[in-house]
From TrEMBL:
Highest taxon of the lineage: Eukaryota
Cofactor requirement: heme
Protein name from the UniProt record: Cytochrome P450
Gene3D superfamilies, per the entry: Cytochrome P450
Binding site for heme: C329
Record-linked PANTHER family: CYTOCHROME P450 26, INACTIVE LINOLENATE HYDROPEROXIDE LYASE-RELATED
InterPro entries hit by this protein: Cyt_P450, Cyt_P450_E_grp-IV, Cyt_P450_sf
Example GO BP: sterol metabolic process
């Protein structure tokens, strides 16, 4: 079963004989899953977004505000499970009700040692950041998720075994890692940030609404349709710039090399530990004008498209392409286009929405 190992604050997720998530056969398997999921990805996302907003509206009708965190996480879990694994959570009442929470607990156990906590130091470093957490804390829930995938995801499991020479155990563990850590975990951090940005800016909503309705008309939303929405894409990119879902990356140098910045050069020796902090890099004033501010149209026009070469949120530039030879997020383009679909779907459904970091306080249905 998967375990979580730490060297200082460095997390290494180790499972079975796969030492790195980017191991070629595993990366190829993940990219194959994404490719095959493309036939249902958009329809599942839009269907589950409708369910999410119906739930939020029902709660709002009772007065006050409605938290969107749990409805959003259920939406993410359901559409990803059906898209990536071909398994319907509704086939298991327990998974349908609590599958998202099971993943939350599993993720929390792995991420806690890397989460910055600014009080009670040095106790935080001693008791939260310095030792391996026992898998027994989440083994029961993980086993239920494992058995669900084993039962309901037979087609994808068989493909992992026959086309990528993975054992059944390896296939299921990697499916759960892709589902839980890569996809569900990333979206659960990123999408609330995007919703909060939209819900707190009425003027931005108006501009986006005009673009969405002009570009999409009455047609069904798709990846192709949101590719024509320049401002929508720019808002998604700007949210990723300021709040990347995975702000820290660690690695050890494989050889001696020289690392250059704008005005300095650093000698790196083989074996040295490197840490990249994306939130700092994405606020470089020599690259981004007014880097601390949210600028909705930053990535529009020719100059904006050039800036995409400096947008790092996925272990590589936005203009890069994932492959078996690099560690760039295999679903990089799916993430940005799915976020664009969320924005477009929202602004076709509502004329306006008010929300903060966790709750919706008002919506006005589209006329």
């Amino acid at each position: 079963m998967p375990s979580v190992k730490f060297t200082g604050d460095v997390r290494v997720c180790a499972y079975l004989d796969t030492a790195e998530v980017a191991h070629s056969k595993v990366k190829n398997f993940a990219m194959d899953i994404l490719k095959r999921s493309s036939t249902v990805w958009v329809t599942e996302l839009l269907s589950n977004l409708d369910t999410m907003w119906d739930t939020i509206e029902a709660e709002l009708s009772k007065g006050g505000s409605a938290s969107y965190i749990i409805p959003l996480q259920k939406c993410i879990f359901n559409f990803l499970t059906k898209s990536l694994i071909g398994a319907d959570p509704a086939k298991s009442p327990e998974i349908a009700k609590s599958g998202y929470a099971m993943l939350d607990k599993w993720l929390a156990l792995q991420l806690l040692p890397t989460v910055q906590i600014s009080f009670l130091q040095p106790l935080v470093e001693i008791f939260l950041h310095s030792f391996t957490y026992p898998f027994a804390l989440v083994s029961g829930d993980y086993k239920k998720l494992y058995e669900f995938v084993e039962k309901e995801g037979k087609e994808v499991i068989e493909r992992g075994k026959t086309e990528f020479q993975l054992s059944q155990e390896e296939t299921i563990h990697n499916l759960l890692f892709v589902l839980g850590f890569n996809a569900f975990g990333g979206f659960s951090v990123f999408l609330p940030s995007l919703l909060s940005t939209l819900g707190s800016n009425a003027q931005l909503q108006e501009k986006l609404r005009l673009e969405v309705r002009e570009k999409s008309g009455e047609s069904t939303l798709s990846f192709n349709s949101v590719k024509d929405m320049e401002l929508v894409q720019s808002v998604v990119y700007e949210t990723l710039r300021l709040n990347p879902p995975v702000p820290l990356q660690y690695a050890r140098a494989r050889k001696d090399f020289r690392l250059s910045s704008h005005d300095s050069v650093y000698e790196i020796k083989k074996g040295e530990l490197l840490c990249g902090y994306q939130k700092l890099v994405m606020r470089d004033p020599k690259v981004f004008d007014d880097p601390e501010s949210f600028v909705a149209d930053r990535f529009t026009g020719e100059k904006g498209r050039e800036l995409l070469s400096y947008l790092y949120w996925s272990n590589g530039p936005q203009t890069g392409s994932p492959s078996e030879s690099n560690k760039q997020c295999a679903a990089k383009d799916y993430v940005t286009l799915s976020a664009c679909l969320l924005v477009a779907h929202l602004l076709r459904r509502y004329d306006s929405i008010a929300c903060g970091s966790t709750s919706v306080t008002a919506v006005e249905k589209a006329q």
